[in-house]
Design a protein that fits this description.
Length: 503
């Protein structure tokens, strides 16, 4: 299996994992919190200076913790180096600040005394006198785990009323770092300046509606202190993911792809899966279908090998077809994709159960075939890829999910506990692997929320797998290439597009 060497800058972490990185770096490496704050603030100030012109006025909303301290560092650098006028406001007062925030406030006060354009706003009513070109949200950091309380709830409302550009530090105040849910509202940022690691809440729940463009900044965390829930699949990782190209000399040099799919009224799913698999360049794609559907596939899939089972009156699979299907699968080594449009008739699902229990090697289980997975055990020498949409994932879980974070947590745990790979489709799509290396789409997967796209994805993954014999590479490449093709299509047809929001 190929090792996808994706840099840590594309790692997505929970709030707790981010705080652990901070704590371990401070306690075990000896880099103090003030230095980390200085590093974060300096990088953020340089970024803001590229957008806000010299002499701009910024309004800084600061909390009592280190998030407020970061804002104070930014204000200091922009005031000194770029002649910004910096207006500092503490909604909850400036007493009892964290140690490092207090140090930075003291520095600003000294600079103010020396004539620097730094102004402390002591009363909320005085904000009306400030005309700001931009706002900095340094109220609360990654630790928020309950609904906003006074005065932060009203302050978030106030910030959102401003028309100026808004920069959120680490996470927009009010947005849950892990789930991406507002609590109950959050700052609508134009930019979220991410320190140390990308946060799961940027991509889950309603996170993309609040975070704006994500700008990551590195901090001095040793690699061994970095933990993450997933690597991000986004346009920036293309250079780190090998392309999938056939090296075979003839069509049977690769392993074949067998597709067991289709039933009366659902033939389109098999057609789309087979056509997308063929486009990957797989050496040969063999569509195994009930005999009564063969004519439909002959008309619509001229380049695909067809193998029908049963009689011309059979319009769905049943257990009587099992031996014929197994004989075909054993004729040449190959990957099996089962499920698109196969239907949920009882005798069909009985057929699927027995076939899966008698099939080894790489198997992609999609759509209706997923319904039998909770009832059977994976053969020891089989490697399964499951491709559930959120509803199907909920059935595998035994109950529906309250949040996207619950769904991806389940997917990761299910992958390792059952030794399978899970492609949990949705917004976003999450990939869990048996080895614990997981992936998360950083782009707007709603562009794929159309009938048939799940069949296309299953076919593409399966075709890639027939070429590479590498589940991880096949899936990540399929998700990334699909997105790039969607961008191209929408550009050509002048359709609106919500791209990934990682800068």
């Amino acid at each position: 299996m190929a090792q996808l060497d994706i840099p840590y800058t594309y790692a997505v972490s929970t709030g707790e994992q981010c705080r652990d990185s901070d704590r371990l770096t401070i306690n075990e490496l000896g880099i103090d919190g003030f230095t980390l704050m200085e590093t974060a603030g300096l990088q953020a100030a340089r970024f803001i200076s590229e957008i806000e012109s010299s002499g701009s006025a910024g309004l800084y909303f600061c909390g009592k913790g280190n998030n407020g301290g970061d804002a104070l560092v930014i204000a200091r650098y922009l005031a000194i180096q770029y002649s910004h006028s910096c207006f500092i406001y503490f909604p909850a007062g400036s007493e009892n600040l964290s140690t490092d925030a207090k140090k930075n406030l003291d520095l600003l006060i000294k600079l103010k005394e020396q004539g620097l354009a730094v102004y402390l706003i002591n009363k909320k009513k005085n904000l009306d006198k400030v005309t700001a070109d931009y706002l900095v949200d340094g109220l609360l950091g990654t630790g928020l785990d309950s609904n906003l309380r006074a005065p932060f709830d009203s302050t978030v409302d106030l910030i959102n009323q401003y028309q100026a550009r808004k920069y959120a530090l680490d996470i927009p105040t009010g947005l849950h770092t892990d789930t991406g849910l507002p609590m109950p509202d959050a700052v609508h940022a134009d930019y979220t300046l991410s320190f140390g690691a990308l946060k799961a809440g940027y991509y889950l729940g309603k996170g993309p509606s609040y975070t704006g463009t994500i700008q990551p900044f590195n901090l001095s965390f040793p690699e061994k202190f970095r933990k993450s829930v997933a690597k991000l699949i986004t346009t920036g990782i293309d250079d780190f993911i090998p392309s999938i190209k056939r090296q075979a000399e003839h069509k049977y040099s690769d392993r074949l792809l067998y597709i067991v799919a289709g039933s009366e009224g659902l033939t389109g799913a098999a057609i789309m899966a087979a056509a997308s698999a063929w486009k990957t360049g797989a050496g040969a794609v063999v569509l195994i279908s009930p005999g009564g559907l063969l004519e439909i596939y002959e008309k619509n899939l001229p380049g695909i090998i067809k193998s029908s089972v049963g009689s011309r009156t059979d319009l769905s699979f049943n257990k009587s077809h099992l031996d014929e299907v197994i004989e075909t699968l054993h004729s040449k080594d190959g990957v099996l994709l089962i499920g698109p449009g196969i239907g949920r008739k009882e005798n069909t699902l009985d057929f699927v159960k027995e076939l899966l229990q008698k099939t080894t090697g790489n198997v992609v289980i999609d759509a209706d075939a997923l319904h039998v997975v909770p009832e059977i055990e994976k053969p020891e020498n089989a490697d399964w890829i499951l491709t559930p949409h959120p509803g199907e994932a909920g059935k595998l879980n035994g109950s529906s999910f309250t949040t996207d974070f619950d769904r991806i947590t389940w997917s990761a745990g299910y992958s390792t506990s059952r030794n399978v790979t899970v492609v949990s489709k949705g917004y976003p799509t999450f990939v869990g692997t048996p080895g614990g290396t997981n992936y998360l789409t950083g782009y707007d997967t709603r562009i794929f929320a159309r009938a048939g796209f799940g069949d296309i994805l299953a076919g593409t993954i399966s075709g890639n797998l027939a070429i590479t014999n590498d589940a991880e590479l096949s899936i990540v490449r399929a998700l990334l290439d699909g997105y790039m093709k969607a961008i191209q299509f929408m550009k050509e047809h002048n359709e609106p597009l919500e791209p990934d929001h990682l800068l």
